Amino acid sequence: MTTTSRGLGAVLVAQFLSALADNALLFAAIALLKATAAPAWHTPLLQEGFLLAYILLAPFVGHIADTWAKGRVMLAANALKLAGAGVMLLGANPVLAYALVGVGAAAYSPAKYGILSEFVPPDKLVKANGLLEGSTIAAILLGVVLGGYLADQKAQLAVAFTVGVYFLAALANLRIPKSAAVGGQLRSPRALVGEFWSALRTLMRSQDGRFTLLGTSLFWGTGSTLRFILVAWVPVALGIADTAMPANLSGAVAVGIAVGAAAASRFVTLSNVNRALPAGLALGSLIIAFATVTSLPVAVGMLVLIGACGGFYVVPLNALLQEKGHESVGAGSAIAVQNFVENLLMLVMVGAYTAMARAGLSPVSLAMAFGGIVLLGIGSLAWSRVKPQGLPATASEGSSMR
């Protein structure tokens, strides 16, 4: 086995285990809050603290990933996750403990994506991303199932399970071949903040960088908001009042994303990345159509299709950002900027959904309005990508629809 294939395999295994534990631990933390009769508003704080870690640490974690060997950064970040699960097991506040896990996840992300460009050539980067996204989706599904089942038995058992899985992920991190650090000496926080904003400006000035940052952010903002829409929509549209059905339908979206990611790795490369645009445009239209569905089988089928379009759309964009980031600001810094923009837009889109819900819109109207917002956002990006420029586009910009 070559160093390249061994390194990629170790990254995929480590990511699968780490993501599995992340999702199982969330359900364990929710169960712990319920067991202690914590106020209901504490539950969303789990996710908010997790997201805020990505936003606040964005200026620093990309530089760390580009300065130190990325495999060792993944190991250190996984140790933070392990510590968060460990203190939760010992009785720490679940919200604070899960926030520590979020710190580890924020540091883990730019390293896990940035390291792909060190193990595979550019023409294989989309395929590698597809494998990574597929591994992550499988881990999310298994983590949700196992975490929910174990938490129903005993919350502490579910937390102990995640501690063990994080430990296995650390062992997989140790199998990643050590790559050379490329960023020089660590710099002061003030300098890093300045460099982060410089990297953000650099990527936003580039057509490819701006397209990928905003495009992937719209996708993940759509996914995070769709979970809340399903919770409100299912009882009204399908007449099903239990809490398991929205979670199961979210799983249908995840299955679709895995299918779409696999298809993208087969049919899309960096040289024809615009093939992903029609799938992105379909997202908003499908959500609008989905809002009117009243049949459970049709709803499941449409959500799988929504997920498939999303996976086919986002995987090539991730690969393009890694390549352009590697060429300009560093792959780790590019992913850190991406995490900042994505999580910021996730908070904004969830906030917009909350505002519309408080204004009294019905769940069906909310879903249709949200689909329209997604269609308008991705449509604007697609038009800016393919509109006539008057002069032939360069190959690197990839402006023609292929």
From TrEMBL:
InterPro entries: MFS (IPR011701), MFS_trans_sf (IPR036259). The keyword Transmembrane helix applies. Its main location: membrane. Keywords: Cell membrane, Membrane, Transmembrane, Transmembrane helix, Transport. It is a multi-pass membrane protein. It is found in: Cell membrane. SUPFAM superfamilies: MFS general substrate transporter. It holds the Pfam family MFS_1. The chain crosses the membrane at residues 12-33, 45-65, 85-109, 130-151, 157-176, 211-233, 245-264, 276-293, 299-321, 333-355, 361-383. GO terms for molecular function: transmembrane transporter activity. The keyword Transmembrane helix applies. GO terms for cellular component: plasma membrane. This is MFS transporter, LPLT family, lysophospholipid transporter.
